[in-house]
Each structure stands twice: as structure tokens, then as C-alpha cells.
Amino acid sequence: MAPHSKNTPESPVDIEAEERRGLLNTGDEELERDDWTYKGKENPDEPQTWSQRKIAMIALVVIGLLITDHANVVSYNGTDLFRRTVIVVSIDGLRADYLDRGLTPHLLNISKKGLRAKSMKPIFPMLTGLFAESHGMVANNFWDPVSKDEFRYNQVSCVWNPSWWFGEPVRSSHGGVTTANLMWPGPPKTRTGGTSTYFVPWKDKVPLGEKLDQILKWIDLPVDKRPQLILAYEPSLDQAGHATGPNSKRVNDTLVKVDTFAKDLHSSLAARNLTDIVDIVFVSDHGMTDTSHPEPIWMDDILGEEGISAIAHEDGWPSMGLRFHNNANVTKYLDKLTLASEKNPEKFHVYTHKTMPERYHFANNPRIAPIYVVPEIGYILTTHAEGDTGMSKGNHGYDNEEFSMHAMFVAHGPFSVQAKVQHQRRSQDAHLAARANDGWHSTSNDAYIMKTFKNVEIYNLVMKLLDISVYSSQNNGTVGFWDQYL
Asked: What spans are recorded as compositionally biased (Polar residues) (predicted)?
């Protein structure tokens, strides 16, 4: 999810309520969930953990698998026909090193059968293949000087209005591919009118087992109705991280539930003889860092009460985008902020569109405030009047070079098989021996771990796996990035 607003409720209960009013909330949490009812895979007595605001042939493939270059080519799993199919599950807030806690044996087992990345550098949302300056979602809450309107992540009228979203997500029905969206962030229709074939909007307190049922219900449809791309989104880990911090028991307990869900999904595909036909990709959109005992940076001490009063719009959190009133002496306040940051470079930095680091890709959009104050991890931007009221115990949105901000990537299916074959082929070629590990952090008999990469690359991966790259929208992914694996 995008960085959380500082104006959050004070208690964990209120934090949960605020998150429930977030992306894709229909405003009616009590509505029945149609005909996709949870069948009891989870313990009904176990409390839900929802809070604040998703493959070299190592073994023979299934008999009948057809390998060609067309998305409409059909494979056979022994009982039914299948076109190229990709399932992407986004687990919000799953920090890359959560996989090292000893609580995710199933995700690690899936990654050993397939592959994983050391980590992914985050940008939200990932399936547009765009940086924030390109897709326009520059913060949870922000002012648009063009439309003279304010976007708020917890207002349905904003989130469901496609005019706010510049990107064309892969969930749109590109090239005639049938798609399914299970609570993935974004409006039901894009700016260009694109829609998912199947669309299940955000609902709160949907158990993971119920989401599994819906995914399998789509997988079990006849071939002419079955989606080739299924996107599913799960927010519970992010919510737990915000409410209680990344090192809390609640986060660890939620991590175990998410890992069990991954096992159940993979096992269900295996039971259908689909693990060599269907690509499944588990991703997260960002990590999480502890903010339970932050050191404050007093903005009123820097700007003075007059400067605070001169702020017309304040965007984002934990960073702070500042727009001053038209009659304000902006140069004076920018000089004050810059001088303070130069005296305390270990605490925060101040950027304009001209000085913003290029690696942020966060300047070329009028929605990005002209002055941005960016704290280092361990610090918060606040005033004496606000203090630390309502601050979450965990947060993200800091410098994406920080490893605690990094996301995870685990994949299994035909993609991982081809990637391993590609690695072995390059390793055996004397002329390419020196480049054998290009793209790989490490490889061994039981683990293939890709180097850290930016999550804007995911869009092109999905398009490539579905063999519909010709329909790709313009994006910020690296041309040819996946050629080293496929």
C-alpha cells in the first residue's frame, strides 16, 4: 500500500477501522459475499488479524503440455484443457527478510521448487509497470493542482474514480485474455475503459480460505470462461505491521496464516496437475519498519508558527509534501528547511522537483508537491501540537534503498523451469561462463535466488508469461530485463 497518512486514529481498533475504509471499500461491509462463501478451511474460533491500512526443465512436464509462442495455445493436465495461466498474489507488507524468520516453510518450499528474489525495490502500484511520477498515485492523500481536487485513499469516490489512476494495469483485458481481479487495489474500470472480466471488489474481514475458494472456483471454470490472469490481494500482514509493528507477535501470527494460504493454493494446483502449466507468483508491494519509538523532527521549530500556517496542503506520510499558500514567501520557508536539513543530514532531507534524487522517479508530475521533506528511518515529521498522537507502530514509504522497505518475490511454474534451464545453459557455455550468474544472487541445488530488482519489472513479466507483450502499455520496466531468465 502507499505510505499511510499521519492523521490516523489513536487506538489499534480505530486504526483497523480506518484501514477498512481504504482502497476498494464499497461502503457496505455487511453485504453478503454472493456465492463464494468460505467453506471452513480456517479455524472459526481463531480471531482474525485485520488492522490498518500482491520456472530448464528440472523434471518432465505434465504429458500433453504444449510449448509454443501463442497465448491461446492449449495445454492438457490429464482432465481438462488450459491456456497459459498466471496467478499473481500480492501480500501487502511482506518484508523480504520475513522469509528468514523460520515462520514461512511453505513459501520457502515453493521457492525451492521454483525460485525467488533476494528482494524487490518497491513502488506502488506494481502492475502498471510505472513509477509514481508516471502513474499518478503519489501518496495516500495528495492535492492535484490541475483538477483542483484532493485524493484521499479512504474515500470510495476517489479510489473508484479512474481519472485519478494514470496507469493501464495488466488486469485490463489485453489481447483478448480473460482476467479476474480479487480485491486488487484500483477502480473497476480504467481511464481508457478497460475492465477485468471478473471483478470482486474490496471487502473487509474476508478470510484467506475464502479467497482461496474464489481463486479455485475460477481455475475450475470451463476453458472458454476460465481467466488466464488472476490477481489476488491480501492486506492483513500490512495491517498488522502498522498496528503493532514488524517485530510483533501479531505480525508473526499473520505471517504463519499467509504462509499456510500459500501452501493451500500451491497444493490445490498440484492436486489438479497444474504446477507445470500455471505460473504462480507471490509478491509484496513494500516492506515495513518499526516506528514505535521515533525521534521527532519538529516542523514548527523549523518553520515557525507563521510557516506552519502558510501551508495550504500537506501530502503523504512519513514524508511530507508541502504546498504553501499563493501569498506565502516560499523561498524563505524552503531556505529554513534546507538549512535545518544540512545541519541534520542524518535525520531528514529536503528536495524540490529539481533536486529530487533521480532514483526516486518522483519529480515529473504536477501532483508531486514542489517541496518534499523526507525523513530517515527512525524519525518522524510532526509539530508540538500534534506530537506522536495516532502514530502507527510500523510504517513504510521511506527510502527504497533501505532493505526493511524491500518486498518479496516467489514464483513457481513454467517460468521457474525455463529460468533454471537458461541458467544451466549459460553456465555450460564456455563463452558465457563469466556471465553465468548474471541476474542471480545465488544458485544451488536447492535454491535459485534472483538478484534484487525493481517491482516495475513485474508488469512485463506477466505480459511475457501470457505472451501478450505486443499489447503492453508504455511502462517504466527495463527493456529486455526478463531475457536473462526466459
From this structure: 1-10
465: CB partners within 8 A, 6+ apart: 84, 86, 279, 414, 415
Tell me what pLDDT residue 167 has: 64
Q: Could you give the CA distance from residue 174 to residue 190 in angstroms, rounded to a whole number?
A: 12
First CA to last CA across the chain, in angstroms? 29
Q: Is 289 left (phi over 0), alpha (psi -120 to 50) or beta?
A: beta
Q: In the numeric block, which cell numbers belong to residue 337?
A: 528547511
pLDDT tens digits, 164-198: 777 666 655 556 899 999 998 777 777 777 788 99
Alpha-helix runs per DSSP H in 57-200: 105-113, 132-135, 156-159
* Three-point CA angle 75, 80, 82, nearest 5°: 35
- Check if the beta carbon of residue 90 is closer than 8 Å to that of residue 408: no
CA 40/CA 282 separation, integer angstroms? 23
The pLDDT tens digits of the residues spanning 73-89 come to 789 888 899 999 999 99
Answer whether 56's CB lies under 8 Å from 419's CB. Answer: yes
Angle at 313 between CA 309 and CA 318, to 5 degrees: 100
Residue 384 burial (10 A CB sphere; 0-12, 13-18, 19+):
exposed
Pairing mode of beta strands 289-290, 440-443: unpaired
Predicted structure pTM score: 0.82
pLDDT, mean of residues 96-101:
98
- Tell me the pLDDT tens digit for each residue of 28-48: 333 333 333 333 344 434 443
- How many other CB atoms are found less than 10 A from the CB of residue 258? 26
Rounded to 10°, the helix 249-271/105-113 angle is 40
CB atoms within 10 A of CB 455: 27
Q: Could you give the CA distance from residue 451 to residue 423 in angstroms, rounded to a whole number?
A: 13
